[in-house]
Amino acid sequence: MGDTTSGPQDIQAVATGEIDTGGAFNGSVAKLQQAGSKVTGVVSTYGSDDQTFYGYYSLERSGIETAQDLVGKTVGINTLGAYHEYAIKQWLHREGVSDADIKEVALTVVPPINTELALRQGQLDAGNLGTVFKRNENTDFVKKWKSPGIPVPGGVIKPEEFTVWVDEAVRLGELPAGIKVEELFTNEFNPSANGTYPPDSNEDGV
Q1: pLDDT tens-digit readout, 134-170
Q2: Own/partner pairs for 87-93, CB < 8 Å, 24+ apart?
């Protein structure tokens, strides 16, 4: 099983047979499959709650207050062509930032462990932080490992979980229109979807 800071790298290793399973957001799965790789989504992940999530942070006196304020700024993310690039671009679009202005937001790859320091040193105007890296100077690191985990009971995949990212990729010109999202995943091997367990069962299937 792969576990890197780059989802595309993770599932590329699946496609080449280096590992059996990997994790990446659905847009990466769609792009890799469209490129001819035989990868398929089997479990829904990337859940979040009020304490476990990723966010974009800037220093208090950065002057960044709105989405438009990010235009012309440098924003740190973990890898290009993956979830965080799609997420920030989709949010900017939803906030009314024009496509031309979105292109002026400089997305820069920064290892998550270095993002906070890069912000404080002025190398970034904003940066993506989550899990153990999302902290401040008045707190200790999280005492136990936490994960976004599974967003729905049993990790059953729904078509709309792919549609939202495929539509974004089409808008950005990275995927062609007309992709059938139902062909990007399967719930065949998921006991919570194939009738073995009730959809809302716990980890013991009850």
Answers
A1: 555 444 446 444 445 566 667 788 888 888 888 888 8
A2: 87/54, 88/56, 88/128, 89/168, 89/172, 90/164, 90/168, 91/67, 92/67, 93/168, 93/171
Please answer whether residues 93 and 99 qualify as being in contact, where contact means their C-beta atoms are separated by less than 8 angstroms: yes
> Is the whole model's pTM more than 0.85, yes or no?
no
Phi, psi values for residue 164, rounded to 5°? -60, -35
Which two structure tokens, joined as six digits, stand for 59?
């220093």
User: Measured between alpha carbons, how far is 22 from 27 in angstroms, rounded to an integer?
Assistant: 14
Question: How remote is the C-alpha of 31 from its chain's centroid?
Answer: 14
3-state secondary structure of 175: coil
